[in-house]
Amino acid sequence: MLRTEALSRAFGGLQALAELSLEVAPGEIFGLIGPNGSGKTTLFNVVTGVYPASAGRVWLGGEEITNLKPAQVIRRGVARTFQNLRIFQRMTVFENVWAAQHGLPTLRPRELVLPDRAAEAERRAEVRRLLEATGLADRAEMLAGGLPLPDQRRLELARALARDPALLLLDEPAGGMTPRETEAMAALIREVAAPGRTCMVIEHKMDMISALCGRLCVLNFGRKIAEGAPDAVLSHPDVLEAYLGHEAGDA
Amino acid sequence: MVDFIQNCLDGVMVGSSYALLAIGFTLIFGVMRRLNLSYGPSIMLGAFVGTLVYLEFQMGGFAVAVATVIGAVLAGIYVERLCFWAIRQGAAVASMVSSFAIWMQLEEIVTVFFPERTYPFPPLADRTAIEIGPFFLKLENLIMFACAAGLTVLLQVLLYRTRFGLALRAVSENPRAARFMGINIGRVTFWAFALASALGGVAAYLIIGTDAQITPLFGLWATFKGLIAMMLGGMGSIPGAILGGLLLGVVEAQSTWYLGTEYRDLAAYALLFLFLVFRPGGLMGQVAAERERAALRRV
After folding, report:
1. Is A159 on the interface with B (CB under 8 A)?
2. Which CATH code for domain A1-77+165-251?
3. Residue B134 has what pLDDT?
4. What is the complex's ipTM, to 2 decimals?
5. Domain coordinates of chain A in residue numbers?
6. Reduced to 3 states, what is the DSSP secondary structure of residue A92?
7. CB contact, 8 Å: A70 with chain B?
């Protein structure tokens, strides 16, 4: 579904991504872990065209998308959430998801001003269905900026799902959540977000990621240091070293 | 007391057109986070297109209004392409300075074709007044107020009931997120400019129609009134722009009555100064900031 080949990105002298080659198979939930600053979010940013790649190539379902603009990548069925939330705070929860249907191929330009009643009713129903699925239905008319953090993360997920993406990139979907909330988010990803699409998840919470993902890739200083099934990867000596430094022996 | 209320009535009606100008500024500022100084001059150019139709083809009010709006929209799009589309991200100062340059250019163009100081413009209404108890309402002011109020309601419907409005609000709040929702920022900006210019065109027609004459200085005048009203209301807030416009109108009407016409603009600038010092966020800026803080507390 998504394939990168020797993908690199440098910021001045800092090599944020170094010759990263990955392949994410259709339908899988692929985990991306690594210490802070190891290049995980940079990978999302290069894939979605926020930053151009310094070298290397990216394919999406057989089509090369290296250095396409975000709008072009989005149009090819990619959606993402953000580690530092980017919801529309002064809009209602409903409007946030409603806005995310913008630019879908089924939306004709004249509908921007003159809505097609039947089609729009269907889209609104879809928004309500997504809010229902993410547990936000009773807060639909609240201003999104007033939601507690876990709900804001769920809203970001609902908003990404509104685009019905083939590839969903989740950047720390459980960031700042309690263990219970994290578990609920994992269930949400497994049961609502993942079926029928490919997911990539960045997360620091090992329990969540190893329960959720079939395969993991570990980055450190922009390089891949391990890849494979969660159990094997998380006990890999290089991974322990990267995460725990010299205290690895004590862990 | 009767005088004071009469002044308030007059002020609110004239202020409604200031509110339209302030809304135009706010739409552009909200979407671009940049100041378009050329806003006034571009609608002034539109008004001269209206004058041309009036003088050359002897056409009446409605045709002149349509010509004014079309002229203002075309001039606004010209400004958008040159100052904002061509100068992309991050260069807010460059955009503002070039909008100043376009201001001078538009004024020059108009003075080349219209060298006299003033030209006639079709009056909005004859000078009748409606009497309600001790108060007089001028017909032209009533028309101005009705048009402004109607347009504001229409704009509200557009912003809150259509997908275009949704996209515009999304871009003005968080352009980087909007981009990932499939919203074409360039296109939204373009139409926001066109919309702001159309509102400005209507405002120009109403204001100049009340004076029944037009001068190239109208551009400067409109930029000042719109900017002051926007600053009073709080930058980036449409309800703020409306309130700011009405407040400016009332303060001008009161100072004209109690102090004299020569103090009218002085009072407006004094009001702006007081706001900048004591309430820099404007009337609605504080409300928005307070709401944001409350939202953050809940997180």
Report:
1. yes
2. 3.40.50.300
3. 85
4. 0.86
5. 1-77+165-251, 88-164
6. strand
7. yes
